[in-house]
Fold this protein.
Amino acid sequence: MSDGIRSSVDYTLVDSEWFVRSPDAAALEDAAGTALGTNQRIHDVTASVESVVAPTATRIFAVYKMNTAFAPDAAAVTNARFNVQVNQSLPFLNFTNAQWEMLVAVSNLFREDVVDGSVYDELLVVRPPKRVLGGVTVKF
């Protein structure tokens, strides 16, 4: 997009037909019925943005994932998953060879690696937990 900003949009279309069903399929249909149909057409869009704010050495990373087969959640406005991370350099602590950063992250993606995996990895998680992470990282 411009200097310091990288972004991508990944679109996946899945046509599947399940021939053999597991003995657990009847019990799982109540929880994840949208992910366990016999014939499915699933559309998945994953957008990511990564940016570095040069004057402050702040790194921002965001992923937003929409899928037509996510289980509906009454509390959610859309059936989407997200991951937002902000890393802030702490240069006043660089009195050794270590690099210090503060990290704040909020996510409801069940798997962190959304690119290398099956479409069903996120679909079979009915209500993903929202995770809030904060801390300090030190790179030696």
The chain has one domain: 5-139. Residues 5-139 form one domain. The first strand starts at residue 5 and ends at 17.
